[in-house]
Amino acid sequence: MAKKLPGLNTSSTADIAFLLLCYFLMTTTMGSQTGLSRRLPPMPDEKQKTQDQKVNRRNIIIVKINSQDRLMAGTEPMDVSQLKDKIKIFLTNPTNDPTLPEKELLDIEGLGKREVSKGVISLQNDRGTSYQAYIAVQNELVKAVNELRDEASMVEFGKKFLQLDEDQQGMIKKLIPSYISEAEPKDIGKKK
Fold this sequence. Notes:
The protein is α/β, with parallel strands linked by helices. The protein has 4 helices and 7 strands.
């Protein structure tokens, strides 16, 4: 006569597997992807009178991306890898070039009188521009401003911008402002 094998009670095994699954789900962190840290300007009051801002032509650099993802900064076509350095030179105007932005003398609380650039970056893209090219250009523009802020932080406080306290960061933001304007996308290739 054949021996009868004892059966295994697997009901408790399923409970243990479920508890382990719950444990790992609650203790593991998922990688979260964040988008661009951009904030839209607040909606203007309907009763508020609008004023046209007059900006000196030399204080604006127009960065354009066409539908083939080709980049032009000012009057020069360039690769995305060159954009950061171009923007840094534009914003700092180290040689006081009359074609680059003006500087105004501001009294920044905590730092004293400092020359601050009036430079504005105007980003314009075509409706056919790829998202990848748009983000790459955005990253380079933000990287240029961040590097300038890091450099100014090192000179003024001896540490990088993100290591400064909130008041010190405010001072550096006044010294190195970030004026990035985005125009509405256009259909450059279509005739009107």
